[in-house]
Amino acid sequence: MKKSWILGLLAGLWLLGTSNGFSQAEVRGDVHLFQNFLLDAPIASTFYGEGGLAYSTYEFFKAFQFGIRGGYPITPKFEMGGEISFINADPDQGDGESGISDLTVAGRYNVMSDKANLSVGGYITLPIGSEDVGQSNTDIGLFGAVRYPFSGSKLVLTGTAGLEFLEAGDDRETSLLIAPGLLFPATPQLSVIGELSIRTEGEYMLLSGGLDYALKAGSHLRGGIGLGLDDGAPDFMFLASFLHNF
User: Can you give the pTM of this predicted structure?
Assistant: First the structure.
């Protein structure tokens, strides 16, 4: 049933994207992904930052997350970014826990920017977070990301694939990340973003859909929902944020 729902959503976005072509395909680098914000292909032309919240429900608890993230182009082809948040975990039974997350630092280098955008990069989490909310881990990841605009269509294919080396006590677990997506600019201001993120470690699969609305002076209002398709992902997630290009 879940697979049929996913196929129906992707088919609907495809029909929307091909129903009204435009003369010049664009990768829409000004519109950022929700799930893989730091693991994307475009290189920004200026510093940008986003502040927002996420509410997630799991089988035995719910979590609130308030965070900031952003990026800065060191050169026209190389960008650095970071992310940190405050987490509150509220179990169905017992007392809740709060604390800051680990600091994620990521970098990516653009290797292709003609019709498509292709970048490679990596990230590391600095273990400054609280163990009370499952943080204080040094995780490392390597990835490649692409954005490809379909010719004669508004639809843009997004995709991220990578290897993650996750700290698990005294050991490390290796996880494969596969994250395809579709971006559809419904109007010059409003973009629809669909993403599916799969991580082989931890039984994680999350499907999300969101909206990005461009305001004046380089600001964006953003919001979306996510549905967990495997046990390791949230059952439901709500996202809301404000992004500004400085």
Answer: 0.88
